[in-house]
Amino acid sequence: DPAGTTYRRVLLKISGEALMGDQGFGLHPPTVQRIAQEVQSVHALGVEICMVIGGGNIFRGLQGSAQGMERTTADYMGMLATVMNALAMQSALEALRVHTRVITAIRMDEVAEPYIRRRAVRHLEKKRVCIFAAGTGNPYFTTDTAATLRANEMSCEAIFKGTKVDGVYDKDPIKHPDAKRYDQVSYDDVLAKRLGVMDASAIALARDNNLPIIVFSLDEPGGFRGILAGEGTYTKVH
Ligand code: UDP
């Protein structure tokens, strides 16, 4: 096992909003660079890393369709937004000398590689960080589902979902100071209690394949590496 952790291959899922910093929209390069450092420090342990990044900082299909756009077109725009985020992350990681590949679920060969499972596995074996972009390539899905799908396909041991808070709470901890954090919670409780970890199709796909989801705070410096070493606070959904 890589030094200091029992994990060999993991998937890190972050929302697009994690990249916008204190701005209300878009990409904030210093924030992207900070997250890239978190990834680099885990990569340095020898852990093989997959990433899926959302697109909500740029465009969400549901918002577009609520304002009159055709839903599938709006969803494709959301998927394209995730490609921009993936390229920003690639650039930040490569500035730190971490080798990466952006792999898209929608072909755009001049920009990034198309998704070919065996090829992606090979990249991981060569310690390249694989950034999976364009979601699942299908409208009506989310990047949480894409993360669960790719984590299963790549045989990741867990999904690490980096958020603003250090786990899953019984109610929104930002609004309710008395909210309680779960150390662990079952997939079925997440679904039944509608705990906002990931959308229901992502949770069901993780449950049906026994893929643990570890929810932790990305705002904590060194947090990702700490969680991989079993330190710090987090919630394990399993
Ligand atoms: N999307 C999609 N299919 C997918 C993944 C994403 O249609 O497989 C679209 C959808 O419109 C979504 C947008 O891309 O709103 C951005 O992804 P998401 O909302 O998951 O981003 P996040 O909330 O994680 O930033």
TrEMBL record:
Allosterically activated by GTP. Inhibited by UTP. The keyword Nuclease does not apply. Pfam families: AA_kinase (PF00696). ATP binds at K13, I14, S15, G16, G56, R60, T163, Y169, D172. It catalyses: UMP + ATP = UDP + ADP. It is found in: Cytoplasm. GO terms for molecular function: ATP binding; UMP kinase activity. Residues 21-26 are annotated as: Involved in allosteric activation by GTP. Coiled coil: none annotated. Gene3D superfamilies: Acetylglutamate kinase-like. Its main location: cytoplasm. It is an enzyme of class 2 (transferase). Keywords: Allosteric enzyme, ATP-binding, Cytoplasm, Kinase, Nucleotide-binding, Pyrimidine biosynthesis, Transferase. Pathway: Pyrimidine metabolism; CTP biosynthesis via de novo pathway; UDP from UMP (UMPK route): step 1/1. Catalyzes the reversible phosphorylation of UMP to UDP. Homohexamer. This is Uridylate kinase. It comes from Pseudooceanicola lipolyticus.
